[in-house]
Amino acid sequence: MPEYRSLREGIPMLEACMTPDLASEITLQPVRRHGVDAAILFSDIVLPLYAAGIGLDIVPGTGPVVTNPVGDAADVAALPELDAGQVTPVADTIGLLIRELGETPLIGFAGAPFTLASYLVEGGPSRNHERTKALMHSDPKTWHALLEKLAETTLEFLRVQLRAGVDAVQLFDSWAGALSLRDYREFVLPHSRRIFEGIAEVSDVPKIHFGVGTGELLGAMRNAGPDVVGVDWRVGLDEAATRLRAAEPAAGAPVVQGNLDPAVLFAGWDAVEREVRRILDEGGRVDGGHIFNLGHGVLPTTDPEVLTRIVELVHTTTAQR
Amino acid sequence: MPEYRSLREGIPMLEACMTPDLASEITLQPVRRHGVDAAILFSDIVLPLYAAGIGLDIVPGTGPVVTNPVGDAADVAALPELDAGQVTPVADTIGLLIRELGETPLIGFAGAPFTLASYLVEGGPSRNHERTKALMHSDPKTWHALLEKLAETTLEFLRVQLRAGVDAVQLFDSWAGALSLRDYREFVLPHSRRIFEGIAEVSDVPKIHFGVGTGELLGAMRNAGPDVVGVDWRVGLDEAATRLRAAEPAAGAPVVQGNLDPAVLFAGWDAVEREVRRILDEGGRVDGGHIFNLGHGVLPTTDPEVLTRIVELVHTTTAQR
Which pLDDT value is given to residue B184? Predict the structure, then answer.
C-alpha cells in the first residue's frame, strides 16, 4: 500500500516494529483501506530475538541477517531469552490499537521455534535449511535445547501481547513445510505445543497456527494445540479439514483458514473472483466453517484495490448465506 | 566435487553443456568417484531454450536470466522452437559417453514445460511464480500455446538424446510443487503427458518424472505417463507408492525413486546411515521395489566422500537382500 511505503520511508523494519505510534498506524492501514474483519499486529518474526539482544538486522532485499549464527551447544547456552520488559514498545503499540480499533479484533503474532531456529542457525534466510537440519540430526540434544529456549522467548512475547489485550494469537512456522512429517514430529512439534499450552494456561483467546507447504503436516500441527490452522493454496480447505479431523482425537478439530494463492491476485479480477468463490464454496461445505484468508502473505507489488474488492466480495457473499 | 570445479573453472555453464569432451567428462566424474549405477547427462534445464535461440544466460549465484521475458500471445508466437541440429553437441556428448560408459546406463535429461515456462515468464528464478500463475489464470489460451511450444522443444531435445543412445530419460519439473493439484491438472499435466507420449512413440526406454514438493501431485504426475516417479524427502517411499497406486488405472503404477534429503548429508555419517537404512527399509517394502536416490540435487558444499559412502552402503545392503 502506498500509505505503508510512505510511513516506512527511511525507517528500518525492526525500528518501525518498536515505535508504537508508527507500528499501530501501520497495523490500522489495512483495516481502514480494505475493511477486513480483524487487524494483525505489525511485527516481524525475528523481533523477539532482536529485542532479547541477539545481534541481527533485517537487510532490505535479503531478510534477517544474524551477526553470529548458532552452531553448537555453547552458542545455544549463550543465547539470551526474551524478558517481557524488552518488548514494552510492542505492549504500548497494542494499547494504542485497542483504543483505536473499537469492535475490530486484534490478532497477535509470533514466529514458531523451528523458523526462528532456521534463521539463527543458517544466519539468514535459507532455501535448503542444511545447517539447521544438520544440527537437528547430528546433535538432537543441542537442537532441543535451542528450541526450548526459542519456545520460551516466543511464549514470553505472546504473553506480553495477551496482557496488552490482543484478541487472538497467530504462531507462524513459515519454513515448517521444509520438513518431513517424521522430523516435524520429533524435532519441532513438542516445542510448538509448549507454546500453545503456555498460552492456554494464561488465556482462552483463539490460537492460530500457520505454515507454508504444510499439507503433509496438518495432522501433526493440529496436535500442537491450535484452534485454527491456516493452509496455503496447495491443499483445498475441504481436504485440509479432512486431514485435521483424521488426527486424534476425532472431536474438536481446528477451524481451517486461508487457501487463496497470493500469486492469483496478479491474474485480473475475473480469475480472482473465480478463485474467491471456489474457496467460499469449499470452505462453506466444511463443518464448523472456515476463515477466509490468503494462503500466504500479500506479495509486495500486489494492487491494493484487488484486496479491497476481495474483502467486499467475501462480505457480500457470506452475508447472503 | 573438486575435479568438477577444476574442469568448469572459467567456463560458463551453457558453454560447458555444449562442449562434448567437457560435458562427457563431467558426466563421467560421479560414476568414477562414487561408483553409482547410472550416469546422468550433464545438462541444464534451460539448455534447449538457449540452443533454440532464446536470449538467456546462467548468472552464477542467480540462475537463468532471460533477456526478453514472455508476457503475451505475441511473445509466445515469436518464441523459437528447438531444431534437432541446434543440439548436435549434446548428441556428440552422448556418443562419447556411450563409448566410455560400457555397461553403465546413461540417463538423458530435460526440464518440463511448466518449469521452463516459469523461467521464461518470470525472466529468471522465482519464489512465488506470480507472473506465471497470472498468465495461466488470466489468459489460458496463451498459456496453453506457450506450453505446447515448450513441450515440442523438450520432446525434440529428448528425441535427440534418444537417437544418440541414452538408456532412460528424466523429465524434471522442478517448480511443479508450487501449484495446486487443480491448476497442475488443468494447466500442466496435458503438456507433460504429451512429452511422455511422444517419447513412447519412438522408444521404449524407462521414463522418469520428478519435481520437488509434489506430494499432492503424485497421482496426477503418474497420469503423465512415466515409468518412474521421483519424490523428495517430504513423503516417504511407501506413502508415495500408495498415492501412485491410488491413481487410475490401479495396475502398472510407476516405480518410486528418491527420498534422501540432501540437507541430511551435512549431519555426519551416523545420521546419514540412519536415513539411508530407513529409506532402504521403506523402499524395500514397496511392491516393485524402488530406486535409491537423493530427494533433490546435491547441494554445492556437500562433502563428496559422504556420497561415496552412501553408494557403498546401498550396494552392500541391497546385495544382502
Answer: 98
